[in-house]
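Continuing the series of single-chain predictions for the mutant panel. This is the parent chain; the variants come on the following pages.
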Amino acid sequence: MFISSLSSRVVFDSMDNQVIVDPGIHNQPGYAPYDQGLAQNLFIKKQSGDVFIGKVWPGTTAFPDFLNPNATYVFVCCCRFHELG
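Parent structure:
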């Protein structure tokens, strides 16, 4: 809702906009999207086999490995999880 409202205003004001989706999943045990990604082996891994943890706002995150077809499904479910929240 906010994005569509903002987009209409930006178009009205003759400005360009770019929506960026950050796919990072907060790496906190007990956070359902992270736990599900771990259980299904859906995150990018380091050469050592450990999950790669990066830093984005507001903190550390794991990133879905979108070369795995199941990662897309889990990421979409994560977005829906937040819409319902």
